[in-house]
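We modelled the chain as a single entity of 326 amino acids. Its sequence is:
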Amino acid sequence: MIHPFADMPALCGALRQPRQMLAEQVYDGHKSIHDDAMAADLGLRAGPIEGPTHFSQFDPLLHHLFGQAWFETGCISAHYQNMVVEGEEVRAFVRPPPAGERATRLWAEKRDGTPVLTGTASVGAAAGPGGEATEIGQRIAKLRPPTRLVINRDLRVGLQGAGNPEPVRMGFDTHMGPHYPFTLADKLGVITEPCAWYTPEGGPHSPWGRAIIPMEMISVLLGSTMDQAGFRGHGPAVGLFAGQEIRLIKGPLFVDQPYLLEREIIALSESARTESVWVRTRILDGLSGQLVGEMTLNSATLKASYARYDAELAALGQGPAGSPLA
């Protein structure tokens, strides 16, 4: 039955305090933006919590709307708006889709209403609400070619990962390397939305008979070997996630299952403060070779964090760093 009200109220989750687990994260031999001291050098009051941590808060809402299909063919696509530090409270919102639709909008806010992220969610072949592209798809379609890359000037669209295919695996006690200095078991101890299907005890009773990897930890699985791709700009410099899409094609992804990753740069862009590399990672089942999922990541590097930015910009004959972008 069609609902008599034109605009259905949004579903919302409880206020949660996501945990910071990346204080010891290391990129290219130096601490990341998630370290408090590094964050302070960049004018932040503390190391921010990584964006995909918030994906867990949407899982109960999207499972309520889409059922088991959310973990099998779900797609969450988000643009990160404002950083969250440990101790701040965040709430997730999802707009119920019209009857028969399989895509909708979502967002998250801090307690005071400050936006954290905005995006789309869908299942199956659906793209976005009304049939348009996902949040990340829309943003990529609107990008203009960069005209003054400095940090990422040696990279190009279409570049394949040097490590293709990269073997990855996530057991409960697998240390995921310097990018992610914790285990799945560590995460499950503090995850904002516990689920029996994620655990050693409850996994065998899931609809798939095995423990599944939480959506936010798919980002960890794929990010743990990112260095193998060789997509390095000039540095040292500090980066952050500016937007991200995780799409399951034949999910879920399983704990302790081997996977292979294939990476490709699909776009390069810039803003007044950042240079971005947009990377699509294809996830293949390590045994069958079947495509089971994809991630598109907007990895942005802060221009101000690269000490030689202004000098190299001038040497490249592209004008002062403060000049307006084309």
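As a brief sanity check on the tokenised model: Residues 11-315 form a domain with the Thiol Ester Dehydrase; Chain A fold (CATH 3.10.129.10). DSSP finds seven helices and twelve strands in the chain.
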